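Form 7-S
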Amino acid sequence: MATAPGAPQLPETVYGVFCGGIEQATAQKVVNSLAIAMGAKVKHVHLLFQTAGGYVADGVFLYNFFRSIPIELTLYNVGQISSIGVIAYLGAKRRKTSKSATFMLHRTTNSPQFATAANLQHVAKGLILDDQRTEDIIRNHVSFPPELWAQIHHHDIYLSGEEAIKFGMADEIAEFAPPAGMHVFNILG
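Output:
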């Protein structure tokens, strides 16, 4: 089967970088980049993934997208993945972390500043729904001990790369290391 006319010629394995917040525009760029790779018959994408988090809906979207794509996707944490970024990260078929990397999780937040009582009721309902769906995703992939589940209800929790392996968040300690001479794509650039 030939590559579609106008589709870029790419190797079977490509390397890329995502470093930014998770929101609608960046999620769209990730999808577009992976769609180009799929159209070019790429078999495996290695993606360095660095994020302080962002919007719950966009992180859950990326999680579901990563789980559904028909190519191998390996995400790497070589710095920090925080908040909803952890949820997106859990969608990859393969998840690697640097020994010196960290992960941060917390409950969903929203600022009540300038909200009316009626608005606060709707905000609370949305926060509860977001907490339920992100917790369900975490529980499907991660085996936290009860004391960590208790902590996450009241505090941010930070995990080292080694702890991420121990709890099933990541598969192995490994560095993002594209071969010499390999072009590395910047998804947001």
